[in-house]
Amino acid sequence: MLACAAAVTAAAGVSGAQERAAAEFLAAVASGSPQALAEALHPDELHRLRTAITGRLTADAALGDHAARERLFGEASNLGDIERLTDINFFAAIATRLRYPGRAFAKVRGLEAVRDGDRRVQVLVRGEQPEGRGKTRVVALVTLLPYGKDWKAAVPDELEAQIEDLVDGRAPSSGLLPRRAPGAAAGSTAGAAARPATNTPAMRAMLADAARALIDGRCQDYYGTYMSPGFRSATSANAMQALVKGCERSDSQRETLVAALRIVQDASPVFERGGARAVYDTTGRGLPFDRFVLERIGDRWYVAE
Q: Could you tell me the residue ranges of all domains in the chain?
């Protein structure tokens, strides 16, 4: 009888506020936006994670160990910039490396709420998919924490486990992954012939020379010699002077540019405009931009953007 009474006390119906918080979290996951996911999480959770992780990264940096920082934020990141991130932007940056599948729901109905410790509540909901997306109703579990008179989602345990894997350098568990049927691509001529594009020797030489100019502090040479004529003609003299001065005064800015040049030197570009333009995807590499572009004019390559 006592056990039954305890179970009744621990489990309860889902309140309207809890249902709304669960729906907000599930919609953020389904959006695929790391920023939306971060904004749907409880502020205390985000602050707790940022404090713990930056403490670890600071301790590692004192020992000359940057592996965890690079796994979480990319090889071009630096600790100073990471420490200046807000709690939301900190989590959003890490979330680009996490896997947490989601499904869009037109309506979410609460089924049960079970208290888990002093503050956490495990809320079980059933989601109805939008019209045209199938009739199957999907059950999901969302962990909530009180947020004033409302509720906010806690960081899911699965995501915390993935963050721990990244910090400690463990290979993530693969789980159930889609597999290509044997021979499925055999009949595809395009798939069989496709090979990753590579930088030409001229491109690699230009990238190395541009990086050397920045390492030597020759910012005027970088912007005047290695940036494309199109970029220079579209940039006013005052703006160009500001770029050069900013480069000369900021070690961090030069380091970021050098990191970008080194990253794309070993990357595979997508060639456009008949091979005269090379576009590199730099997403998740710790750079403040998601792509880097070179262009060829005559027989010379330049940094375009």
A: 8-167, 201-303
